[in-house]
Amino acid sequence: MRTGRPRTALEALAWRPLLASGWPWRSAGYLLATLPVALAAAVLLAVPAAPWLALAAGGHQAGAVVLLVLAGAVLVAAAGPLIAIPVTAFARRRRRLVDLRPASAVRLKSAPGGPAAWLRARYTDPAAWRQAGYACLLATVIPALSVAVLLAAPLAVAFIASPFLVMAQQPGSAPVALGFGHVATVAQALPYLLAGLVLLPAAGYLVTLAAGADAALARALLLAGPGEQLRADLTEVTRSRARLADAFEAERRRIERDLHDGAQQKLVSLTLQLGMAQLDLPPGTPAAGAVAAAHEQAKQLMAELREFIHGIQPQVLTDLGLPAALGELADSSPVPVTVDAPLAGRLPGRVENTAYFVAAEALTNIAKHSGATVGAVAARQHDNVLTIEITDDGHGGADPARGTGLTGLADRVAVAGGRMLLSSPPGGPTLLRAELPCDPSQP
After folding, report:
1. What is the pLDDT of residues 347-368, one digit of tens each?
2. Which of 266, 293, 310, 436 is the most buried (most CB within 10 A)?
């Protein structure tokens, strides 16, 4: 027995004060709201179901019967996913009458590319076919059951009132019709009275059961279940994470451009002016020494700024692509590194940046922690997947749990939709492998 208030009509069936609550009335309202939606579904389905309607008229030969059955099936199947769109939209709105639980509509597949792509996505989506199945039920079985259940309460009232109706009849009048028969005397009406007394409270349960069953079916076919909702939420989280990564990448490029075109140019101009001022001052004077020191500091600052800009967005990566950028990384590494990257053409910007920083972080770790004497970087593109491997002959034992570098690197690869694998047994060698989806259609 439920101790709390029910949230659905089906839960209300086990609730003791059901008949004194508003659930039977809510359920009756739900079933009444079903009828206009069912009528709309029947009208919309009448056109593709015309061969079946013609078959119901009878008078057809065996070959014509088979042809009409097949034609009706093809037309209904072709129109079903489209007819289901308005029908299920109205059907979902009445759910809150008998189902107070939060829920969201099933997210159908979406495909850019115009009406043809939309239709292809619609007809290949299982959720659209579930909606079409519910639309067919809503046009046939559900309204018939709803009408039958809704008539239970008025029929019970008529049964209870039957003795009084008989007594109110004038002598010689026609018997009272009660749906299942006729009564002319009070004695004949007594069984109907007893049936009505039983049927009236049962009608409340019957109406609640019918509405609850229909709402449960609608929820299963039209709304997202917990697993489906979780998958949709994870998909949205993945997309939002990708959007954040793209926004971060754009902001990083803007900072690099502002530093390169703004601060660095001004620092170059200052360095030139200090050098010219140093030439105009007599050698050995305090002013000449101060200007020379400032000139040297400006040159060091310019070198540091250039290195900082290079760390934000290497110019060689922007201008020449990933193979050239990997070669520059190898040249600047204190450990001898060979590069093998036979890539044809440029890759999408996000893929190039992610692969570059994977290689840069891995080579930095090799130089700092591995004790390696040689390293290697290999990049391959196959089946729209870019694979980059960084190996070294160091002592191994790399563990992501010991620091945030490898974990952050794995997160960066995951944002790009890829995965990172690490093999680093004690004693070495160490292999770091990143696999990145690489769609040539991306910019």
Report:
1. 887 788 888 888 888 888 888 8
2. 436
Q: Which residues pair with 375 in a beta bridge?
A: 337, 392
| Beta carbons within 8 Å of 369's beta carbon, 6+ residues apart | 394, 398
Nearest to 212 by CA among 53, 12, 347, 403: 12
Residues 397 and 429 in one domain: yes
Give the amino acid at 178: L
Would you give the DSSP letter of residue 400? G
Q: What is the pTM of this model?
A: 0.51
Q: Specify whether 295 is located in the same domain as 342.
A: no
The 3-state DSSP composition of the chain as helix, strand, coil percent (nearest 5) reads 65, 10, 25
Which tokens belong to 381?
Answer: 């593109």
50-93 per-position pLDDT tens digit:
777 777 666 666 677 678 778 878 887 888 888 888 877 777 77
- Between strands 375-382 and 337-340, the pairing is parallel
Host H or E run for residue 206: helix 186-222
Residue 389 in this model has a pLDDT that exceeds 80: yes
Q: Are 426 and 436 in contact (CB under 8 A)?
A: no
What's the total number of domains in the chain? Answer: 3
Q: Could you tell me if 277 and 294 are in contact, meaning their C-beta atoms sit under 8 angstroms apart?
A: no
